[in-house]
Amino acid sequence: MNDCIFCKIIAGEIPAKKLYEDDDVLAFWDISPKAPVHFLVIPKKHIPRPVDVKEDDDPLTGKLFRIGAQLAGEKGVGDDYRVIFNNGEKSGQEVFHLHMHILGGKGKPWAM
């Protein structure tokens, strides 16, 4: 996608503070954090919204959760964190590339 900011981050055209990267997934710090620990986990495959996930994407979406949990532990929030996916503009989705927010730290449930 030519105008997708996350595709540009994946391609290295826009810098990001990366936490994790492999052939399928990229994780990086959110540029406008809503919690002491707030990062995004995204697939490198362009999938616009959660509703656009297909059955053959199941291994990839499962990997998003696994990597998110691993990084949450590494960043000190253990298993006390919030996972958020927004689907569509009215839900608050601003970037139309599937992404999972991980928010944690200081024991508070953060609003988005």
Helicity range: 10-25%
- CATH third-tier fold name: HIT family, subunit A
Query: Superfamily at the CATH H level?
Result: HIT-like
Written as H for each helix and E for each strand, in order along the chain, the element string is: HEEEHEE
Count of separate structural domains: 1
State the name of the first-level CATH class: Alpha Beta
Distance between the termini: 26 Å
Shape: globular
Largest sheet: 5 strands, antiparallel
Uncertain parts: none
Output the strand order for the largest sheet: 1-2-3-5-4
Q: Please, what is the average pLDDT?
A: 93
Number of helices: 2
Annotation, overall tally of beta strands: 5
Highlighted features:
2 helices, HIT family, subunit A, 22% strand, alpha+beta, globular, single chain, 5 strands, 112 residues, five-stranded antiparallel beta sheet
Give a structural overview.
- The structure is a single chain.
- The protein is an alpha+beta fold.
- It has a single domain (5-104), classed as 2-Layer Sandwich (HIT family, subunit A), CATH 3.30.428.
- Helices cover 21% and strands 22% of the residues.
- Strands 1-2-3-5-4 form a five-stranded antiparallel β-sheet, covered by helices on one side.
- A hairpin with a 7-residue loop joins strand 2 (25-29) and strand 3 (37-43).
- The longest helix has 17 residues, at 58-74.
- The chain is globular.
- The two termini are 26 Å apart.
In short:
By secondary structure, this protein is an alpha+beta fold. The protein contains two helices and five strands.
